[in-house]
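Hi W., the fe (ii) ion complex you wanted:
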Amino acid sequence: MKLDDLCGLLGARSFPSAQAREHPERDDVAATRTAVSAAVTDDEFLVDCMARELDLVESGVRRRGLTPFFTMPDLGIRFSFGYWRPGSTPGPHEHTAWTITAVCRNELEVLTYDREESYRRQMLIPKNRFEAPAGRSGFIYEPCIHNPRNNTDRWSLSFHVTSPRDGERLVDEERSLPVLDEFVDRMLADRGHPYDGVLAARQRQIVVRQVAQLLAPVGSPQAGILLNRCHRAGTAVTRRFIERLRGGDAVTGCGDRSRTLVRTHPELALSHRYDEKSGLVRLGAETPEGWVEELAMSRVARDALAFAARTNAFDVRQLPGSLYEDERRMIAEALEDSGLFTRDTHA
Ligand SMILES: [Fe+2]
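Structure:
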């Protein structure tokens, strides 16, 4: 099965067009959920979707919540993947139109809340709790408040099919619930701060590693091609991660890496602090919440981190200090993996 097959199935049902004000029939959403359940246990389908997910990664688009890798042009239905680090949760939030969620790898726990009572009492009133193992899918048809969480110590991967109208404020809804408003504000916040680029760079690497983790055991030619794309999009740390997934096999055809590191945003403010007591040098960034430590290294890296803090672009061989070549490489890799710097692919 391919993504086109699922889209064909959706197209054959009676889903309203992207601009229509009405919602589909419940049967259409339920039938789609059945198809999604089958799709997410089919490696060919997941690999096909991952090709588009990598297009999204390579485009450099900043992810915000569930970022669609594909949107059906006529129906506006969105397809996205969710990546769940161990213990993570987006927090309670509301879906205002239909959505289908399926777990592809590992599992999630989903708490739901009594929407009517929650609004009435102005606090979240728990209703149900569902375990969602890999292969399980569920759908929301009526507006619903829920909170998924990865309660395990491994990453989980989910697949989402979402109405173009999900997220719209309901016209007959004059009530509000502070915890839901805070979630929406967080999602819509466009801070435009230089540090956002750092978070986006890290998020990209998370996605690349998780996509690679899905692809590596599949073993099909298509999965192999995509794994090479993951390798090309990866930092040095991600590349080693991918090579381990492949059983130590070198990935061919990826070329040498640039030696030039460029600050992820030219206005990103970095500074270093040396702590005599611990003997550690700390490199930190100015964030909307103040100075945040990003790296801590032994004093041997002091001159190199001071240089990185004041230099926007440099060849890693320029990192100063009495360093062995390996130490210089490790500092460069840490700078890249932190998201503070990225490899200049044009160098
Ligand atoms: Fe949700």
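The radius of gyration is 23 Å.

W.
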